Amino acid sequence: MNIPIVYEDDCLLIADKPSGLLTVPTPKNESRTLTSILSLYPCHRLDRNTSGLIIYAKNKNLQQKMTEEFKKRKVKKVYVAFVNGSPLKREGVIENNIEGMFAKTQYRVLERRNDFAVVQVRPFTGRTNQIRIHFKLIGHPILGEDKFAFRKDFKIKAKRLMLHASRLEFKHPLSGKAMVINSDIPQAMKDFLKEHSN
User: Fold this and answer.
1) Which of 3, 74, 89, 94 has most Cβ atoms within 10 angstroms of its Cβ?
2) pTM for this model (two decimals)
3) Does the pLDDT of residue 10 top 90, yes or no?
4) What's the rounded Cα separation, in Å, for the pair 60 and 170?
């Protein structure tokens, strides 16, 4: 599989993960994951069905440093999501505990379309499936969602989960330089917007 590499230096590699590929094996021990393809050390994870930017370290020490930055919430992550319906507020914050742990997600509506909206999302915490759960809780599940919502709940059908990790901002673990990495939404999401233009 051709994995787009968005950034690389002696310390880090940032890949643009396609939807449908696991970051690391689950207890089922899948052999094909992004980590097995790249043979590097993942610093965080994306859901199988979420596409976008993911940071890999080239050694364990750097992995530890970057993982610590994620834990301290010093890495800014921004996503683009297509959500069912359209949130009433143009901007909002969702604070709902996930599995008993505090979770906070900020969003801004970029565009309202027929029956769905394009939303920029920033999770402040990194709970598993946080964005997917939070948008389901406010009544606007992400299009293509099949884990936290039923297909029959959607007016519009999507072939994949319409969630993409589009931006990362962090300090380089060695140089301390401010890094800003961007990724455009994938072709499948662009095609979806064309098909469902107002």
Assistant:
1) 94
2) 0.94
3) yes
4) 18
